[in-house]
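Need residues for this backbone.
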């Protein structure tokens, strides 16, 4: 069930209310604009005025996208105040929104003023650069053992690297070739040899191109890179354009190597290219990357299979004694493997596992297999890869072979040990043994500590085996994996928000493994590690008919995504949930998630629409508590939009519904919201009574930290009444409660309220300290209000002088 909590802190730190009246002069308002949200408020004013002038509805994001060619998402961010439009885009946007000739100049000046105020001081820039320099990423995976040959290609990479820092532009090496030919091995081997030439660090990512899974999107790759460069997850911007800009800024002037492995195309990697020629980029792909060569100056390095001599040297590195003792058989093995490095490594591993057999027997066995097996991928070279993989696969124990097949189910980038055990339906200890066997056989790789995935060619082979040999295992394995994610996410969410009303989860299948989380930090770390896998699991649930899993995954991720500012992912996963189900209760929860994410992004009209649809679905489902939760949220939305009469009316209805159902947790939240609405409307006696009742309910329930919102509302109320000592007392209690809950954004909001009280009381030093603390928190979320606080701090310093 939804938990409706409405208080000033609950929204103010994320979004600004749209309260401008139609009679306000645009030119006058433009002269006062200092922040991105204030500028966005003017854009929304123009949008509404343009609609009135046409006597029609406001231009939708779709219509604006059609007129501009921009994405819906970036238009939403411009109008929400979470991104500053570039100059040319801003000029185009205000003209579309009907700005008059006399308004164009003041609006352009306002936009330039905002940009200037966003620029940190030189001292702050130097400090920021120092902090960034302290984080030197070393992300290269371990080089493969026994690397041989490739001298011409290594020389070409050296030649390209020598141009770094010159006027020839960003050096980009594009290593192209078929699957299993050794593109990654070459890139990583060379990168390790030349790491000293890039003292500011090496970034690496497997983009998962040309696999059955979704490739890593540029926005997600940029998020990982920014985190590796020292930006905490909560501070990473949401949009791809903003992430790319931040990424290029952080790499400017630095000597860094960026390895983009397994790219789909030039378009896939273009947002990931640094803007500084002091860096170097190495891209690997099965695609020819013609666009990158033509438009971005990349230099292609074509990779083919190993020559026979290099193939023998590779086998000698892996099987030294046996190759020297049986050179003819080693040569035959190279021929049977077609010189394909991946096939040779797998064959060598199998041979190493049978030390007492002569190579001649292994060659004979592989030769017989080759006669009856076809190509795994016609683009991968000689018709031997499937033969070698099949040969190695049949040497596995039955349990390990089954787990390998089931990796063909896994939709995300990798699996934890618990997820792998759930996939196979075995205990954690058995899962650890099976994963170890697969890792030793090179059928699985530990891509990061405790997380496993097969090479993309091996994953394709696993999918084929699962379809051909063990189709009966597929659906139960999907169900166990999804059960693992839903139930583990729910346990983590219970730790992050123990007062949240729970939903009835799908029944857990036998064999699914579920973890526990002793602390909120552990729960948050799990969500952070599993974020992409959870999103992929929701899509898997939608695509294969596990509708309940899809929407319940969206529900269990809500607290984490909200507190980590992952609002775009929150919207995306609830969109998947909507597509997956037609159950009224499930649809209601999905609409609720979309409404909350939209509100966080400042898309109030969209949020209101989803709340209305949510209410309709709860009514269909016969769920009065759901209707009550929606009423609470709508009241909060109305009060932010300046519709105080509607807010009070809707808030009272929520209180009545919760009281009739006897739900004390929901009632406490609704009373808090109603008290806040009455305070905004000036009915202080009613507000005090409602917040006081809410506070008593929280204390009676034994959840003192959950009273944070009520305490915050009481602080707001007493501040409105001019009783500042009492306001400060409640704000201090709210601050402690928010800190106990780990809700840092709300903590920042309360600090700002305290700063305003202390500034009014002439305690400017204390107010400055509180604003600085709030700005530091907002910096961690890359929140635009951090710049506004810095402006206030600068004004305070000037006044003191």
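Answer:
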């Amino acid at each position: 069930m939804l938990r409706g909590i409405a208080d000033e802190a609950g929204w103010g730190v994320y979004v600004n209310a749209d309260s401008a009246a139609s009679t306000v002069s645009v030119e006058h308002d433009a002269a006062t604009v200092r922040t991105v949200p204030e500028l966005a408020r003017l854009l929304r004013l123009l949008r509404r005025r343009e609609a009135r002038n046409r006597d029609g509805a406001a231009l939708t994001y779709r219509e604006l996208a059609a007129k501009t060619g921009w994405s819906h998402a970036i238009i939403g961010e411009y109008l929400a105040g979470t991104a500053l439009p570039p100059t040319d885009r801003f000029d185009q946007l205000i003209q579309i929104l009907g700005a008059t000739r006399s308004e164009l100049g003041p609006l352009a000046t306002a936009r330039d003023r905002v940009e200037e105020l966003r620029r940190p001081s030189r001292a702050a820039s130097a400090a920021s650069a120092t902090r960034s320099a302290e984080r030197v990423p070393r992300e290269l995976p371990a080089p493969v053992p026994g690397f041989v040959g490739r001298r011409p290609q290594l020389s070409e990479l050296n030649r390209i690297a020598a141009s770094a820092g010159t006027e020839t532009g960003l050096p980009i090496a594009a290593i192209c070739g078929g699957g299993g030919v050794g593109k990654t091995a070459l890139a990583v081997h060379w990168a390790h040899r030349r790491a000293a030439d890039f003292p500011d660090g090496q970034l690496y990512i497997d983009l998962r191109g040309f696999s059955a899974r979704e490739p890593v999107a540029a926005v997600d790759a940029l998020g990982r890179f920014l985190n590796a460069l020292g930006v905490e997850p909560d501070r990473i911007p949401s949009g791809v354009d903003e992430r790319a800009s931040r990424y290029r800024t952080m790499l400017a002037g630095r000597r860094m190597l960026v390895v983009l492995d397994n790219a789909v195309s030039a378009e896939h990697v273009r947002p990931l290219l640094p803007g500084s020629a002091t860096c170097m980029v190495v891209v690997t792909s099965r695609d020819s990357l013609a666009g990158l060569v033509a438009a971005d100056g990349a230099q292609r390095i074509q990779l083919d299979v190993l020559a026979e001599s290099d193939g023998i040297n590779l086998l000698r590195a892996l099987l030294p004694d046996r190759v020297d003792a049986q050179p003819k058989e080693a040569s035959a093995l190279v021929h049977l493997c077609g010189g394909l490095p991946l096939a040779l490594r797998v064959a060598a591993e199998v041979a190493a596992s049978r030390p007492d057999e002569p190579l001649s027997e292994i060659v004979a066995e592989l030769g017989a297999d080759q006669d009856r097996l076809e190509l795994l991928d016609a683009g991968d070279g000689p018709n031997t890869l499937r033969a070698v993989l099949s040969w190695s696969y049949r040497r596995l124990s039955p349990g390990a072979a089954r787990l390998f097949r089931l990796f063909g189910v896994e939709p995300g980038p990798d699996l934890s040990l618990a997820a792998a055990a759930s996939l196979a339906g075995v205990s954690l200890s058995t899962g650890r043994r099976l994963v170890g066997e697969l890792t030793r056989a090179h059928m699985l790789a530990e891509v990061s500590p405790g997380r496993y995935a097969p090479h993309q060619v091996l994953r394709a082979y696993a999918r084929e085996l699962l379809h051909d040999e063990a189709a009966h295992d597929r659906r139960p394995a999907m169900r166990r994996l999804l059960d693992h994610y839903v139930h583990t996410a729910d346990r983590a969410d219970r730790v992050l928000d123990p007062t949240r009303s729970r939903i009835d989860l799908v029944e857990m299948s036998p064999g699914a493994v579920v973890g526990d989380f002793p602390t909120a930090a552990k729960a948050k770390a799990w969500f952070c590690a599993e974020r992409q896998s959870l999103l992929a699991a929701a899509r898997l649930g939608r695509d294969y008919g596990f509708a309940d899993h899809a929407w319940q995954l969206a529900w269990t991720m809500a607290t984490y995504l909200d507190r980590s500012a992952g609002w775009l992912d929150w919207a995306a996963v609830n969109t998947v949930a909507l597509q997956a189900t037609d159950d009224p209760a499930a649809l209601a929860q999905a609409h609720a998630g979309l409404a909350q994410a939209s509100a966080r992004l400042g898309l109030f009209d969209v949020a209101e629409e989803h709340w209305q649809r949510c209410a309709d679905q709860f009514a269909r489902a016969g769920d009065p508590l759901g209707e009550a939760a929606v009423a609470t949220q709508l009241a909060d939305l109305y009060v932010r939009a300046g519709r105080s009469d509607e807010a009070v009316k809707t808030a009272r209805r929520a209180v009545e519904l919760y009281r009739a159902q006897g739900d004390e947790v929901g009632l406490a939240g609704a009373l808090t919201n109603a008290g806040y609405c009455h305070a905004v409307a000036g009915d202080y006696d009613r507000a005090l009574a409602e917040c006081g009742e809410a506070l008593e309910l929280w204390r009676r329930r034994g959840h003192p930290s959950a009273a944070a919102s009520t305490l915050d509302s009481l602080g707001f109320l007493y501040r409105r009444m001019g009783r500042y000592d009492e306001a400060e007392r409640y704000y201090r209690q709210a601050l402690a409660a928010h800190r106990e809950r780990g809700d840092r954004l709300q903590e920042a909001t309360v600090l700002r309220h305290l700063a305003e009280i202390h500034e009014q009381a002439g305690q400017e030093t204390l107010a400055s300290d509180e604003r600085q603390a709030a700005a530091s928190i907002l910096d961690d979320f890359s929140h635009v209000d951090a710049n506004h606080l810095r402006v206030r701090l600068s004004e305070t310093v000037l006044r003191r002088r």
